[in-house]
Structure formats: structure tokens, C-alpha cells
Write a structure and sequence with these properties.
2 copies of one chain form a homodimer. Chain A is α/β, with parallel strands linked by helices. Chain A has a single domain, classed as Rossmann fold, CATH 3.40.50. Chain A has 5 helices and 11 strands, in the order αβββαβαββββαβαββ. In chain A, strands 6-7-5-4-8-9-10-11 form an 8-stranded mixed sheet, sandwiched between helices. Strand 3 of chain A pairs antiparallel with strand 5 of chain B, so a sheet runs across the interface.
């Protein structure tokens, strides 16, 4: 999606170690008009697919999922990072490793809000190793729901998570796919 | 706002100890079409006021702030709960006590995204003691920004935080104000 690629080039910052900072418009300060255009593009890409629920993970997926939910006309559910190791029977839970923070979180969704029969679009701001996406897919499967696909803002294609999951049959639509980033601050799209 | 009050009556659950669960449409599963109507109502209430930025706090304020930002046509910034006690010079920071979780968090905003001259609308899903609202106001003031007012989904008026802050001159528009909740599950609006 050209609009997002241009915004990454103008406002994103490439940091050493494969880090892309998009704090200025995607995950700290957020531009809702950009998110709205991204949601419209996902609506176009998933036209003809029956989707009744958006699933994302706190915190930075929530903004994009909110606009996607608005455009798709369906509710969103966000998986919460659990504070306690004692997981109640009322939730589905899964362990998710964070590439950014270098730790592992237990994330949970109330059983009340994921059901067999749900047809789910997973939304997240980043796809790198695919850990968060696999976690969300696992939560949906625990509920017996169908994952129709995923909608990602920025895929770091060079980290391989997206292609691995595609080869396993998951549909993933990434609005910007990054082929490479250099320590000199350079960035190439696929 | 009648639409929100009706939704609280139909889908909210009053729990002992002054807890109102609105997990089904506001802060776990979220209804974006309701948030959109709430954003339009805030736009009407703040008509004529110059506002260039929305400020909220993770995680459950982000969804509402995203739709408010979309309707107001301005960016949102969300204050992040800091994982470390070592706060860098790049951020504004404040301590916020959580009524729901019974703990205290350090929340931070990058200095890059709050500026003197900003005219800010603070958004949050709940107002009870006012701790989160005071924290967000403090962050804005650290930056020299002006807080035009606050837009709240649900105010627990019986906890007094809202009226205390109003008496200090802060404009607060709450879309549903709860006068009382009983241990029998009853609930009255102001």
C-alpha cells in the first residue's frame, strides 16, 4: 500500500539491529486517518470473505483493530497480557514471546468473546517472527473459531515469520512488506 | 448519552464492591460502531473548541481514542505503562494508581509527541477516583500543553473524582454518569 510505504519512508526511523521505529504515526502517536485508509484497503482485500470478528493483542494492535472493526462493521476483541500466572477457567490463554521486549507474556481472551462459529480476521501492527500472530491464531483455534486471515500493517519479510505461516496455509495481507533494512538507515520494500 | 446508557443497562454487569463490567462492548470485546457514535457526541459537545491532539492511556482507552481521533481529524497519543523504573530523559512521566488493579504504574509519553502549544482532549473509558485523568493532565502540563477538556465514556459519579476535578476548573464531558450501584446489581444514572 503506497500510502503506508510513503509514510514509513518519511516518518519511520531504522535503528541498528533490525528495529523500525514508527512511533510517530503507528504505535505511540497514531494517525487515525492513515489507519482508516489501511482499514479500507483490508476491506477491499478481504471482499467476499465472511468475517464477523476482529482479534488483536494489546496494546499497539488496538488502534488499528478499532478502525478495521469500524470499517468491517464488526466487534473487535483484544487479547490481554495477563498479570498473574494463575489463569482462570474463564479464559483461553497462550504464551507469546515478544521480539521487541525480549520477554514472554501470557495472553488471554475471555471465553465469552471467542466462539465456535466465529470467522476471525487477526489484526496487528507488526509481523516479524510471527510469534504474536501464532499466539492469536492459537487462541482462536482453542475456541473452535475459524481464522479467515490476518491483516498486518508492517511485515518485516526478512525475518521470515510471514512466509512460514503462509506456507502453512494462513492467508496474510501485509500493507507494507520490508525486504531489508541496513545499519545505515536504508530500507527496501518487497 | 442515551445510546450508551441503554447499552450499559442491557450488557453491563454490576459486581459487588462498586465494579461495573463492560467487557462485552467497551474494554475487552469492543463495539466500534458505538465508539463512533460516542466520538460524534464528543465532537458536538466540544464544537467551537480548538483541539489538535487526543491523549489517552493504554490499554483500554486506545480504542475509544482512535475513533475520537478519526472523528476530530487529529492524531492520538497513548501514555504507556513503563516496564522499568529507570525513566529516560526522552519522556514525560507520572505515577498513576489503578483502582481496578490495586497497584501503581509509572506511565510515560515521549517528549516528541506532546508539545507546548498542543491543545489536548483527554479520553478515557472510565472516570472513578480521577487518578488516570490527573496523571494524563500532569503529563500534558509537563509539556506546557493546554488541556481543553476530557471526554469520558462512563463516570462513576459516586466516587467523586469527576466533581472534584470540575471544581478545580477542568471541563469533563462524561457520556454516561452513574449515581449509584447496588450490591443487588441495580444501577442509577445521574
Amino acid at each position: 500500500m503506497k500510502l503506508l510505504e510513503q509514510r514509513i519512508l518519511s516518518d519511520g526511523k531504522v535503528k541498528p539491529g533490525g528495529i523500525l521505529k514508527v512511533d510517530g504515526f503507528l504505535n505511540h502517536q497514531i494517525d487515525p486517518s492513515l489507519l482508516y485508509e489501511m482499514a479500507l484497503e483490508l476491506k477491499r482485500l478481504y471482499a467476499g470473505e465472511e468475517i464477523n470478528k476482529i482479534l488483536t493483542i494489546e496494546a499497539s494492535g488496538i488502534a488499528m483493530a478499532s478502525l478495521v472493526g469500524y470499517v468491517f462493521g464488526c466487534p473487535l476483541v483484544f487479547a490481554k497480557k495477563s498479570k498473574s500466572r494463575n489463569i482462570s477457567d474463564d479464559v483461553y490463554s497462550v504464551e507469546v514471546e515478544s521480539f521487541t521486549h525480549g520477554n514472554t507474556n501470557t495472553v488471554v481472551v475471555s471465553r465469552e468473546y471467542l466462539k465456535a462459529g466465529d470467522r476471525i480476521l487477526i489484526i496487528d501492527d507488526f509481523l516479524a517472527t510471527g510469534a504474536a500472530l501464532v499466539g492469536l491464531k492459537t487462541l482462536a483455534e482453542q475456541a473452535g473459531a475459524t481464522v479467515v486471515g490476518a491483516g498486518i500493517a508492517i511485515e518485516k519479510a526478512f525475518q521470515g515469520g510471514g512466509d512460514l505461516l503462509r506456507s502453512q496455509g494462513l492467508r496474510i495481507e501485509s500493507l507494507a512488506r520490508i525486504a531489508s533494512m541496513g545499519d545505515d538507515g536504508s530500507l527496501c520494500f518487497c
